[in-house]
Amino acid sequence: MPSNMHIAASFYASRRGRVTARLLAQRMAAFWPEKPFGHTLGLGYALPFLPLWDGAETPCISARLDTHVTRDAPPWHGRDCIANGTHLPFDDLKFDRIVLIHALEVSEDKGSLLRQVWKILKDDGRLLLVVPNRAGLWAHADNSPFGQGTPFSRRQISRWLGDACFRAERHEDALYIPPAGPCPAAPARMIEWTGRNLFPRLGGVCMIEAVKDIYAGIPARPLSLVPAGLMGRAAGVFSRLPTSRPPPGDAQNT
């Protein structure tokens, strides 16, 4: 395989890349089987998968991250741009669906990227995140874009999502074909079916559907600012110890 196959555009132009795109697109379509009503953004390098949901009434937008893996790409309908992951050029609450692939693992500031995604996703929107699986073979093969950057386990990606006020609702693994060797299409489909049923946690990528956890950042009780001179001893509101009361004075007996 040529040395530039780690670049997403070159990889998906190869035979193995085309087979990989078909296999991943089948799993993505299972997450979102119908075309969403609204705006869809593909962030990272999602060009091979946006035709699943692209239509005249619901056009998709592609934003490739400015990294060596995702920067190069063929032209795509004039709705493609290069974006900085820490300052996405979109309005807040803009998108109903966001597909994040070849993005988080190659981002230098993962927390800022996820927070930017949180801002531009609508409150009832949905995020589909695809990342290399640390336990899979593809994360350890540097001849594809899935072997670049930082792979994740399910627990790690759930922690990253939680820190960015997302809540994971569905996990699946995909891409069970080996990252090297022969790659015929028909056996690849059989390998995928076998892997999902026998080794569900050993796929090459983790696919996670997440929603915004809008209550994650709300404190349990409001913060009150009291001047230092007025600070007193905290009351034992939930204390089970008996509290002694002073005897009633003469003013209460009159």
Question: What layout of secondary structure does this protein have?
Answer:
Layout: H1 8-13, H2 15-31, E1 40-44, E2 60-65, E3 80-83, E4 95-101, H3 110-120, E5 121-132, H4 154-163, E6 166-174, H5 185-198, E7 205-212, H6 250-253
Strand order of the largest sheet: 3-2-1-4-5-7-6
How far apart the termini lie comes to: 100 Å
Largest sheet: 7 strands, mixed
What sort of overall outline do the alpha carbons produce when their principal axes are compared? globular
Task: Write down the Rg.
Answer: 25 Å
The number of helical elements comes to 6
Please bin the fraction of helical residues.
10-25%
- The class by helix and strand makeup works out as alpha/beta
Q: Which consecutive residue ranges, at least 5 long each, have pLDDT under 50?
A: 222-226, 230-245
Following the backbone from N to C, one meets helices and strands in this order, namely: HHEEEEHEHEHEH
Averaging pLDDT over every residue, what do you get? Answer: 85
Q: Using DSSP, what is the number of strands?
A: 7
Percentage of residues in DSSP E strands = 15-25%
Task: Please characterize this protein's 3D structure.
This protein has 254 residues and is an alpha/beta fold. The protein is 24% helix and 20% strand. The protein is built from six helices and seven strands, in the order ααββββαβαβαβα. It has helices at 8-13, 15-31, 110-120, 154-163, 185-198, 250-253, and strands at 40-44, 60-65, 80-83, 95-101, 121-132, 166-174, 205-212. Strands 3-2-1-4-5-7-6 form a seven-stranded mixed β-sheet, sandwiched between helices. Helix 3 (110-120) links the parallel strand 4 (95-101) and strand 5. The longest helix has 17 residues, at 15-31. It is globular, with a radius of gyration of 25 Å. The termini are far apart.
